[in-house]
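Annotated sample (chain length 455).
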Amino acid sequence: MPEFDYDLITIGAGSGGVRASRVSAQMGARVAVVEESRVGGTCVIRGCVPKKLLVYAGHFGDDMEDAAGYGWTVPEPTFDWPTLIGAKDKEIERLNGIYKRILSENKVDLLEGRGVLIDRHTVAVGDKTYTAANILIATGGWPSMPDVPGIEHVISSNEALDLKQLPNKIVIVGAGYIAVEFAGIFNALGVEVTMVLRADTVLRGFDEDLRVTLAAEMEKRGICLQTESVVRSIEPQGDGYSIRLAGGDIIETDLVMYATGRRPKTDGIGLEEVDVEMTDKGVIVVDEYSRTSVDNIWAVGDVTDRANLTPVAIAEGMALANTLFNDKPTAVDHSNIPTAVFSSPPLGTVGLTEDEARAEYDEVDVYVSRFKPMKFMLSGRDEQTFMKLIVDCQTDRVVGCHMMGLDAPEIAQGLGVALKCGATKAQFDATVGIHPSAAEEFVTMRDKRPPHEGG
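Output written by the structure step:
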């Protein structure tokens, strides 16, 4: 009789947990997944998938405006938010069903309820307990709210995806990619948007040129950036809210959304009781193979705060299955991960920022291009595309690619392959471009930016 009920119990049925569980089961392991909500996790249920559907909804408004320049006569459009949310919900339910079927078809048991560690080999789900040789923590993250008077009145990105109706005005507090993306969504759907951010501009950690250029485009679209500002309190006022900033300024709005960060969802699942090492922010400490301080307990995805992206969690889950059940210890390379921000206009980036490259290499060359997208030549839309290449002078290797503009996320995916292969600027130059396209600009940039120039 087996010593344990399962070879692997995974707590959390998000992208990383499902991938690790499914592949482990395909390798012959006995696997169960514990989930207290819907299967699919942040990305499928309340993150990148529903959010991008809303981004698409906003783009249709731009497209109808632009159509006139191409000879189309478009009646005055109207938009119905409940129709969009109903269609989005239907698609999320479909995906939830697909994820459940994936588990079932691979003979992974789904244990519905909250999983709590009793000891290093035992997980309680409701009033039942289950044992496993290995336990994987893949519980993801959750919006984090600061301690501000009136914070109970705000929504997070979770609730923003399920609003019953659109507000006329919204204040979004935060400057990261979630704040930027939702600012673009609401603005495109006709909402008056104000962003309140501590920093001097959006997207801390991204390349400085991208940050400044995107902020300018957002302001062109009518998004108000209240920079270097801090919220002191939020109070109900009539049918809306009054926000007081440090310095005394007051903003009145219909709705307040906070997007000031996310925290690993590690509270109350027994990690402390079994001595799994965590930081003071609840991040699970793991080695390169995703093993925690307890040698049979593992963690992947946002709970480890390595690179909080769905494809990274999936890669970590796949690597874990190989490590545990395929006799092939596998570590995920977290360098040169392509990243997109589905802002308006969108960003695509891979590799080092200019500041990071200058800190790492003795000398770097920077190539920059700005132009109006061909699509807008006839429509007249005032929007720029921005591209940037960063090259290590000593090796000629391209170490950073950054873009803002139409199709930037799609283009960045291909550039990610190039950087993973160690492509040089000479190889970029030797590549024939596709004309006419925006992407060809990455292989036709020849003029270096003088060292003193920036932004």
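Annotation: The chain has three domains: 6-143+263-325, 151-260, 339-443.
Annotation: The radius of gyration is 24 Å.
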